[in-house]
């Protein structure tokens, strides 16, 4: 169950971040062989990761053009097309559609809480960011970081969309009842998981800190922790360690 949808930052900022992340992903991929394994995406190489990003841009386009979940789309570069060109063209085509519409205009999506064009700008921004992080770390290039406002929105999206919506849709739930407060950037979320309930809602930070377990840290650290891109010690965990561990394990299942 989710109690609210939509980003916590301005859509213009998301549009800016989307373009920046595409550039950073491409630059990072140039510095590493495409067959290099990506540990945070088991079974994938750098080439697979870059192609995935180009592919999901085309999935988003198909959703917006056809108004329903697509069955077919261009999943790989065309013959003779480079992976970089595949990503750039997919981004340009999707961006043209998104820029033509206001973020709040109705559009087909897979989240009932946000059926707008803005959903896709937000979703593609965070998918690109997470995989840019994957490729940068493998390439060993200079760490670009994640801007605090983008990371803060990413925490919100990870919890509300993936934990609160995707997890129940997959029929997955916790094995023990537990409540976790997530706190970062002055914001709070209350996450409940167990055999009988999977729920998340935005709340004030003081309320979140009264939960049995509290996960906190800088926005970038919490964002990457939720996506399994950070070591466990990168965030502060107070209280019920098992409840916090269950949250992380369920996030892995929701986002795999």
TrEMBL record:
InterPro entries, A to Z: DinB/YfiT-like, Maleyloyr_isom, MDMPI_C-term_domain, MDMPI_metal-binding
A UniProt-annotated Pfam family: MDMPI_C
Domain (Mycothiol-dependent maleylpyruvate isomerase metal-binding) ranges: 18-136
The MDMPI C-terminal domain, residue ranges: 193-244
GO molecular function: metal ion binding
GO cellular component, one term: plasma membrane
Protein known as: Uncharacterized protein (TIGR03083 family)
Species assigned in the record: Prauserella sediminis
